[in-house]
Task: structure prediction
Amino acid sequence: MKNTIGAVLFGTALVAAAPSASRRDVDTRFPYTGPAIPVGDWVDPTVNGNGKGFPRLVEAPAVKPKTSNPTNNVNVISLAYVPGGMHIHYQTPFGLGAAPQVQWGTHQDNLNNIAVGQSNTYARTPPCSLAPVTQCSEHFHEVQITGLKPNTKYWYRIPAANGTTESQTLSFRTAHAPGDRSEFTVAVLNDMGYTNAHGTHKYLGNAADDGLAFAWHGGDISYADDWYSGILPCEDSWPVCYNGSSTRLPGGPPYPAEYLNAPLPAGEVPNQGGPQGGDMSVLYESNWDLWQQWMSDITTKVPYMVLPGNHEAACAEFDGGNNTLTAYLNNDKANSSAPKSALNYYSCPESQRNFTTFQHRFRMPGVESGGVGNFWYSFDYGLAHFVSIDTETDFAYSPEWPFVRDIKGNETLPTESQTFITDSGPFGRIDGNNWKDNKAYEQYQWLAKDLAKVDRTKTPWIFINGHRPMYSSQTASYQGNVRNAFEALMLEYGVDAYFAGHIHWYERLFPLGRNGTIDTASIKDNNTYYTNEGKSMVHVINGMAGNIESHSTLDADQPVLNITAVLNQRDYGFSKLKITSTSATWSFTKGADGSVGDKLTLLKRNK
Ligand SMILES: *[C@@H]1O[C@H](CO)[C@@H](O)[C@H](O)[C@H]1NC(C)=O
Ligand SMILES: *[C@@H]1O[C@H](CO)[C@@H](O)[C@H](O)[C@H]1NC(C)=O
Ligand SMILES: *[C@@H]1O[C@H](CO)[C@@H](O)[C@H](O)[C@H]1NC(C)=O
Ligand SMILES: *[C@@H]1O[C@H](CO)[C@@H](O)[C@H](O)[C@H]1NC(C)=O
Ligand SMILES: *[C@@H]1O[C@H](CO)[C@@H](O)[C@H](O)[C@H]1NC(C)=O
Ligand SMILES: *[C@@H]1O[C@H](CO)[C@@H](O)[C@H](O)[C@H]1NC(C)=O
Ligand SMILES: *[C@@H]1O[C@H](CO)[C@@H](O)[C@H](O)[C@H]1NC(C)=O
Ligand SMILES: *[C@@H]1O[C@H](CO)[C@@H](O)[C@H](O)[C@H]1NC(C)=O
Ligand SMILES: *[C@@H]1O[C@H](CO)[C@@H](O)[C@H](O)[C@H]1NC(C)=O
Result:
């Protein structure tokens, strides 16, 4: 599939990369040998498909262009907290020809201030020159407004530049000042994508309209790396395949019309996500574009705080039957097979390695909180200190790991075949390259310092969100590694709750002390626990926002462990957390109808 388009493409991509590759750091010692543009569709492996498209795979851009043939456009706008203000991130297919700007003010009709920022880009595959202007992002603009008053509504607008249309006048509300005693509600969600997540999106949007403070998405964001699902053969253990036989839609029937009234273009097989297939783009970057544009109604209104999950690491995680993906990415052969799975770090296009996309498409307050980028950071909001951690890289035996773990003997860098497709990081320092020692990691050292600084008289609550759980009835070895890295620190500093996802279900655990001991004294009743700072924490696995891979289920012969208080393997949705000075109430909101699937109240124990 190396054709003329491919050659043109690479030329364009290299030119685009030249001005700035500031946040992309990938190794290129071995050549990429796959197709110029990997497309997960054997029937029509071209960038724009067969041209008929799927209605669901076109999402309105954040700004509606004023002409029918725009040459540039603001397709995504996404807010995030910075101390004392707001970060406004926006995306366009082409450069702006000037530093990015945001006009703002406290009155809708008087945006008399201008904030100026900076832009980044990376050589994405394919470049936006090959895609519709309103469906593609390649330039990423970062503008901050600081020195704002807490808990105050501000209005903002992105001015036109180099062909873009000026945005509507939008608004946000700044965070409550640390120590402000008033109550507020946040949304916590994990493992979303845009397939099976219709209900989550709808009720999250309603919550954003109803005064939600912010949304906190614990990784596995767009499921972009499932672009190749449609070219893997079906297997019992993997419903995501070109027959899509066991994927499920939100809440079961009746299905939203948009899933059903979208006939497949002639010749296409139903591939993923629904009975009609075609619910997922066959291009990695398009999945990102679609998900971000779909979420604009939320991310333009409330800060959308993200952290890394395994689906953000690279273009793929593993191969399927007959090693179809190895044949495609390593050998540039479609419809083929390879004798063994030989995916490695160099199998993905350069721009699809080492969390590159994740680092460009969001901008979290890592630097402002002494952390690192979008990987680990913290922020205060009124009564609570919120901490995002990276459970994918940057701790001992992390699920994705740095080259230093691949090397043998006296090597300083791994050979091609010693690498893995998801090799990533480190994003922080590892003292002495001692990757087996948690305390050598910058992330660990930062977390200890960050938690030690918390003033509990101002922020009595501490909540931490990481992608992977420490405990679950679905046991796995990574859980022990996450515990070894972080559990003792979190208990020592009296963290109230640890939220995670990764497992695609809702599972609420009892308050747990070190090594999974159940703190029975802190259980008031089935839906009420006392906090027990320094002794136990509540754990919730909240991985049911949606996503193409459907629900996780416990095998018939696997027991529900006694640490598990509630297990829901059926409903999609997200959770809301309402925080007051004496209680924190967690409620699972079902995507099917917005009803409450589980409720837990945490009470501050009087000391
Ligand atoms: C793959 O095989 C199918 C069926 O034989 C054929 O229709 C299609 O053109 C092939 N695709 C490619 C990219 O070779
Ligand atoms: C302005 O937009 C055009 C596409 O409409 C693009 O080709 C050009 O590079 C952009 N200019 C700058 C300075 O980025
Ligand atoms: C898809 O599913 C149908 C019906 O279950 C089956 O007949 C067919 O062989 C499957 N095709 C592939 C390529 O797995
Ligand atoms: C692997 O390829 C063989 C030979 O083409 C085929 O018979 C078999 O069904 C394939 N297996 C899978 C899991 O697709
Ligand atoms: C590294 O070790 C190999 C044997 O394991 C040896 O042949 C080679 O000379 C060593 N290289 C260096 C630079 O020490
Ligand atoms: C990933 O990027 C980081 C910097 O952001 C760099 O330190 C690290 O070496 C890179 N790792 C790999 C495996 O590319
Ligand atoms: C937890 O378990 C580990 C390994 O089983 C053990 O080494 C450690 O002492 C235990 N810690 C506590 C506090 O019980
Ligand atoms: C508490 O939960 C247990 C187990 O799910 C159940 O058997 C019991 O009836 C519940 N108690 C109350 C008061 O709801
Ligand atoms: C829970 O089960 C573990 C063994 O898996 C056991 O050691 C522990 O005592 C049980 N805890 C309670 C409170 O039943």
